[in-house]
Amino acid sequence: ENHVSKYKFKTNQDGIIDFKVIPYPKYKKVLSKGHKFVNFKNLSIILLIISIGCTYFFLTNKRLSYLIDKKEYNSVTTSDNNAISNSDFNNYSKIIESNINTLISLNYEHNIKTESMHKNGSYLYAHGVILSNKDNNLYFDIILKNNKPHSLIINDIEYIQK
Fold first, then answer.
1. Would 33 be classed as within a structural domain?
2. Does the pLDDT at position 112 exceed 80?
3. CATH (domain of 152)
4. What keywords appear on the UniProt entry (predicted)?
5. What's the whole-number average pLDDT of the chain?
6. Is pLDDT above 90 for 9?
7. Which residue range forms the structural domain that includes residue 102?
Protein backbone atom coordinates (compact mmCIF):
# COMPACT_ATOMS: atom_id res chain seq x y z
CA GLU A 1 0.00 0.00 0.00
CA ASN A 2 2.89 2.34 0.36
CA HIS A 3 3.64 2.18 -3.28
CA VAL A 4 5.83 4.99 -4.52
CA SER A 5 4.81 6.36 -7.87
CA LYS A 6 6.17 9.08 -10.03
CA TYR A 7 2.61 10.36 -10.42
CA LYS A 8 1.10 12.46 -7.72
CA PHE A 9 -2.47 11.37 -7.16
CA LYS A 10 -4.90 13.59 -5.40
CA THR A 11 -6.34 12.27 -2.22
CA ASN A 12 -9.56 13.27 -0.59
CA GLN A 13 -9.94 14.20 3.08
CA ASP A 14 -9.85 10.58 4.21
CA GLY A 15 -6.57 9.94 2.41
CA ILE A 16 -8.11 7.75 -0.27
CA ILE A 17 -6.85 8.26 -3.79
CA ASP A 18 -9.50 9.74 -6.03
CA PHE A 19 -9.62 8.03 -9.44
CA LYS A 20 -12.15 10.35 -11.06
CA VAL A 21 -11.69 10.93 -14.78
CA ILE A 22 -10.45 14.41 -15.42
CA PRO A 23 -12.31 15.88 -18.38
CA TYR A 24 -10.28 16.84 -21.43
CA PRO A 25 -10.35 20.63 -21.97
CA LYS A 26 -12.67 21.74 -24.77
CA TYR A 27 -10.15 23.95 -26.52
CA LYS A 28 -7.77 20.99 -26.81
CA LYS A 29 -10.56 18.85 -28.27
CA VAL A 30 -11.15 21.43 -30.98
CA LEU A 31 -7.44 21.67 -31.69
CA SER A 32 -7.06 17.92 -31.95
CA LYS A 33 -10.05 17.48 -34.29
CA GLY A 34 -9.35 20.59 -36.36
CA HIS A 35 -11.50 23.67 -36.78
CA LYS A 36 -14.98 22.57 -37.70
CA PHE A 37 -16.67 25.89 -37.20
CA VAL A 38 -15.48 29.41 -37.89
CA ASN A 39 -15.40 31.79 -35.00
CA PHE A 40 -18.58 33.87 -34.84
CA LYS A 41 -16.66 37.17 -34.94
CA ASN A 42 -14.78 36.09 -38.06
CA LEU A 43 -17.99 34.92 -39.69
CA SER A 44 -19.77 38.20 -38.99
CA ILE A 45 -16.82 40.21 -40.34
CA ILE A 46 -16.73 38.12 -43.52
CA LEU A 47 -20.49 38.51 -44.03
CA LEU A 48 -20.20 42.27 -43.46
CA ILE A 49 -17.46 42.57 -46.08
CA ILE A 50 -19.46 40.50 -48.58
CA SER A 51 -22.61 42.58 -48.02
CA ILE A 52 -20.68 45.84 -48.45
CA GLY A 53 -19.14 44.49 -51.66
CA CYS A 54 -22.53 43.43 -53.01
CA THR A 55 -24.12 46.80 -52.29
CA TYR A 56 -21.18 48.60 -53.91
CA PHE A 57 -21.52 46.39 -56.99
CA PHE A 58 -25.28 46.96 -57.06
CA LEU A 59 -24.89 50.75 -56.84
CA THR A 60 -22.13 51.04 -59.42
CA ASN A 61 -23.50 48.60 -61.98
CA LYS A 62 -24.99 50.59 -64.84
CA ARG A 63 -27.49 47.90 -65.72
CA LEU A 64 -28.93 47.89 -62.21
CA SER A 65 -28.60 51.58 -61.37
CA TYR A 66 -31.93 52.43 -62.99
CA LEU A 67 -33.64 50.46 -60.20
CA ILE A 68 -32.24 52.82 -57.57
CA ASP A 69 -32.24 56.16 -59.37
CA LYS A 70 -35.64 57.74 -59.43
CA LYS A 71 -35.05 59.79 -62.57
CA GLU A 72 -32.04 61.06 -64.37
CA TYR A 73 -32.12 64.62 -65.55
CA ASN A 74 -31.98 63.37 -69.16
CA SER A 75 -35.18 61.41 -68.73
CA VAL A 76 -37.21 64.39 -67.56
CA THR A 77 -39.11 65.60 -70.58
CA THR A 78 -41.32 68.54 -71.16
CA SER A 79 -43.59 67.90 -74.06
CA ASP A 80 -44.40 70.96 -76.07
CA ASN A 81 -46.45 68.77 -78.40
CA ASN A 82 -45.44 70.82 -81.40
CA ALA A 83 -47.19 69.63 -84.51
CA ILE A 84 -44.97 69.86 -87.56
CA SER A 85 -46.52 71.47 -90.59
CA ASN A 86 -45.95 70.16 -94.12
CA SER A 87 -43.51 72.94 -94.99
CA ASP A 88 -41.50 72.29 -91.80
CA PHE A 89 -41.63 68.55 -92.52
CA ASN A 90 -40.08 69.16 -95.95
CA ASN A 91 -37.43 71.52 -94.51
CA TYR A 92 -36.47 69.04 -91.78
CA SER A 93 -36.44 66.21 -94.32
CA LYS A 94 -33.88 68.12 -96.38
CA ILE A 95 -31.78 68.79 -93.25
CA ILE A 96 -31.95 65.10 -92.32
CA GLU A 97 -31.03 64.05 -95.86
CA SER A 98 -28.01 66.36 -95.94
CA ASN A 99 -26.86 65.19 -92.49
CA ILE A 100 -27.11 61.52 -93.44
CA ASN A 101 -25.29 62.16 -96.73
CA THR A 102 -22.43 63.91 -94.92
CA LEU A 103 -22.14 61.22 -92.24
CA ILE A 104 -22.44 58.22 -94.57
CA SER A 105 -21.23 58.17 -98.13
CA LEU A 106 -24.24 57.26 -100.24
CA ASN A 107 -24.29 57.04 -104.01
CA TYR A 108 -26.98 57.87 -106.55
CA GLU A 109 -28.68 54.48 -106.03
CA HIS A 110 -29.96 55.50 -102.60
CA ASN A 111 -32.93 57.71 -101.82
CA ILE A 112 -33.65 58.96 -98.29
CA LYS A 113 -37.31 59.04 -97.26
CA THR A 114 -38.37 60.39 -93.86
CA GLU A 115 -41.52 58.61 -92.74
CA SER A 116 -42.39 60.35 -89.48
CA MET A 117 -41.05 62.97 -87.11
CA HIS A 118 -42.04 64.85 -84.00
CA LYS A 119 -40.54 67.72 -82.09
CA ASN A 120 -40.02 68.04 -78.35
CA GLY A 121 -38.42 71.30 -77.29
CA SER A 122 -35.16 71.78 -79.20
CA TYR A 123 -35.06 68.08 -80.16
CA LEU A 124 -36.46 66.66 -83.37
CA TYR A 125 -37.02 62.90 -83.56
CA ALA A 126 -37.39 61.28 -86.96
CA HIS A 127 -37.25 57.87 -88.52
CA GLY A 128 -37.38 56.71 -92.06
CA VAL A 129 -35.93 54.52 -94.78
CA ILE A 130 -32.92 54.76 -97.06
CA LEU A 131 -34.31 53.22 -100.22
CA SER A 132 -32.04 51.34 -102.56
CA ASN A 133 -32.46 50.11 -106.12
CA LYS A 134 -31.63 46.71 -104.69
CA ASP A 135 -33.93 44.88 -102.26
CA ASN A 136 -32.10 45.73 -99.02
CA ASN A 137 -33.45 48.94 -97.52
CA LEU A 138 -31.82 50.63 -94.54
CA TYR A 139 -33.94 51.94 -91.68
CA PHE A 140 -32.74 54.93 -89.67
CA ASP A 141 -33.58 56.86 -86.53
CA ILE A 142 -32.13 60.33 -86.08
CA ILE A 143 -32.30 62.95 -83.36
CA LEU A 144 -31.56 66.55 -84.24
CA LYS A 145 -30.77 69.11 -81.58
CA ASN A 146 -30.98 72.67 -82.89
CA ASN A 147 -30.89 71.29 -86.47
CA LYS A 148 -27.60 69.45 -85.82
CA PRO A 149 -27.38 65.65 -85.60
CA HIS A 150 -27.37 64.47 -81.99
CA SER A 151 -27.87 60.74 -82.61
CA LEU A 152 -28.03 58.57 -85.72
CA ILE A 153 -28.83 54.87 -85.80
CA ILE A 154 -29.00 52.95 -89.07
CA ASN A 155 -30.05 49.27 -88.91
CA ASP A 156 -29.16 49.06 -85.20
CA ILE A 157 -25.67 50.51 -85.75
CA GLU A 158 -25.06 53.78 -83.94
CA TYR A 159 -23.06 56.29 -85.99
CA ILE A 160 -23.36 59.25 -83.62
CA GLN A 161 -23.52 58.64 -79.91
CA LYS A 162 -25.44 60.94 -77.60
1. no
2. yes
3. 3.10.450
4. Membrane, Transmembrane, Transmembrane helix
5. 76
6. no
7. 86-160
Work out how many domains the chain is built from and give that number.
Answer: 1
Higher pLDDT among residues 158 and 63, named by residue: 158
Averaged pLDDT, 141-155: 87
- Give domain status of residue 63, yes or no: no
Question: According to the 3-state scheme, what is the secondary structure of the chain?
Answer: CCCCCCCCCCECCCCCECCCCCCCCHHHHHHHHCCCCCCHHHHHHHHHHHHHHHHHHHHHCCCCHHHHCCCCCCCCCCCCCECCCHHHHHHHHHHHHHHHHHHCCCCCCEEEEEEEEEEECCEEEEEEEEEECCCCCEEEEEEEECCEEEEEEECCEEEECC
CA dihedral 88, 92, 95, 96 (to 10 degrees): -170
Residues paired with residue 145 on neighbouring β-strands, in sequence order: 123, 148
* Confidence (pLDDT) at 18: 65
Residue 49 predicted with pLDDT over 90: yes
Which one-letter amino acid corresponds to residue 53?
G
